[in-house]
Every structure is written in structure tokens, then in C-alpha cells.
Amino acid sequence: MTAVRRLLARARDEGEFSGAAWAYGGSSGPVEQGTLGTLSRDGGPAGEDTLWDLASVTKPIVGLAVMALVESGELTLDDPVAFHLPEYAGTDKAGVTVSELLTHTSRIPGQQPLYRRCATREELLDALVHLPLREERRVEYSSQGFMILGMIAESAAGSPLDHLVRERVTAPLAMDGTRFLLPERDHARAAATEDCPWRGRVVQGTVHDENAEVLGGVAGHAGLFGTVADLAGLGRWLCRGGGGGLGGSGSAGGGGPLAPRTLAVMTGTRTGGRALAWQAHQPPLSSGGDLLTASAYGHNGFTGTSLWVDPELDFFAVLLTNRVHPARTSDAIARIRRTFHNVAVTEALA
């Protein structure tokens, strides 16, 4: 049993999740990739084809689509919200820029359970328009800001967000299992998430994030499902620094989502511990662990998912769990992530 498998098996035995999938390696591919556990506490085994609710790992994938629109001239990082969304003209958010949304410096409050008072997509979108800005400009992690960012991307591209992400990001990287809105036939191979009091059921195959569910399952902040192989492919491409995509066999394919220069701007822009749609590695207590360099970046998902990349070390690590199953009460995933990345980078560089 490898050190990573042993670490994650112990966490599962302690009840922190029912299943896990992981991969780590570099630009040449994974050094190790595996799965363990079950889709739910009483479910079948998790496998390579298991679909994991990526939660906020959706944000950097949507961010890649946004940066592709920058490359194509369909928007700029300095575009204000109202330029693309006329309903925001005359509001306090009219002048908020795409860059501020990407770096969580927009002053749009985060952690807003709008679903509790908004029964429909239209009601929630209206609540976003009228959500007052914070007075102080600082980094505040804001899913609400990424909801708006997703709508800006749709307006700029003239395409629904799920189509845009598919065309600009997942298709070029052959991430064939990664998508919003799983068809009914795929629900059974999705990892279960919370036994949700709001829904009155265990969530499996539909989005865990409540605001995203009210929005119809497609949003800039959450909603994507993906497999460990797909996320490993993304990590490998990021280690390569952008450019051409990866074919299904893992060899260099056609055009990738972003040119190397665009990816360098996206991941190298640092504002208060944030890059453009990514979290910068900033110890102490970084979920990327203790051993990555200052060039590292990544993102976590509330459901127990993460992707971290260190271009200086030519290293990526994917960890996918359902740590909110059956409940979200434990915070042990924070330390599990740090220890996972410490072990993974040590093994990958050995």
C-alpha cells in the first residue's frame, strides 16, 4: 500500500468520507493515480469512472473559459460588469471589473445563502443585483461574484456557460467526463454528497451547492462534475504551462484552452493571496501543504475536492472526496489536504 493510499484509507476509516480518488505527477503524466472506498456509506465501490461534484473547483475551470475570451478579444479584464450585463447599470456593482471578480476583490459579499429566500433562478439573480457591496475593499472569497462572472462570460460569448466551458476548456483537453448537469443515467456513478436537510434527501448526481441548484445547476461558482483522470489531465496541461491540448492518449493534441502567455498572466497575477480564479500558495495552513514553492496555485471545493499545481516543481495533485457525506460537520479535510500534498510531492519528486 502506497503512502498516499494509506493516508486516505485511514481518513476513510475515521469516517471523513466514503470514497476518494487521487492523482499526482507532472507534465509527463501521473506518478500515481487511484481510488478507494465507496460512492456512499452503503453504496458500490468508487472507481476511475466515478463522477465527483467538483464544487468550487468549478471556479478556475470557468476562469480558464473567461481567459480564453480575453485571448479572443471578446472581453478584457478591465471590463465593468454593466458593459456586459445591462441590468447592473446604475447599481453599486456597475463598475466592478472582471479582474476584481476573478481575484475576489469586488466587495461583493460571499457566503450568502440566497437559496433560503429565493425559490427560482429569477429571484436569486435579482437578489444578486441588489446585494449591497462591502464598504471596505479587501479580498473576500465570493461565490456570488463568480455567479456574476459566469453571466458576463455567457454575454460576451453569446453562449450558455455549460456550452462555453465545453467548447473552450474541457473539449480541447479531452476532459470528456467533465460537465454540468449529469444525465439521469450517470447519477448512479456519482459520489454521494450531503444528506441535505433543505432538500430532504441524500444528494447524488445533482449539484450539492444550494445556490447553484436554484440557478439550475449551471453557474460560475459551482456545478461541474468530473473524473480523476480528467482533473489529472488538466493538472498535466497546467504543469506544461499552457499551449497545445492533450489528446485522449495523453500525447500533445491540438490547440489548448490558453496560450502560455495568457496562462502565465492568469496564474502569476497575485492579489492578497489570490491569482485570477486561483488561490495562491500562501503558508501557513495552505491546503497545498508545507512543501510547495511560492509559484504554486490551486483551488479547493467544499465537497472535499482540490487541484494544486506547482510549475516550478513540475507537479500537480488532484484529490477528490465526498467529505460532506453524509454531513458537512467535520473540518478534518483541511489537515487531510495538507498531509496529502506533503506526501504526494515527496513521492513525486523522489
From TrEMBL:
GO terms for molecular function: hydrolase activity. This is Serine hydrolase domain-containing protein. It is an enzyme of class 3 (hydrolase). The keyword Hydrolase applies. It comes from Nonomuraea insulae. Pfam families: Beta-lactamase. The keyword Hydrolase applies. It comes from the Bacteria.
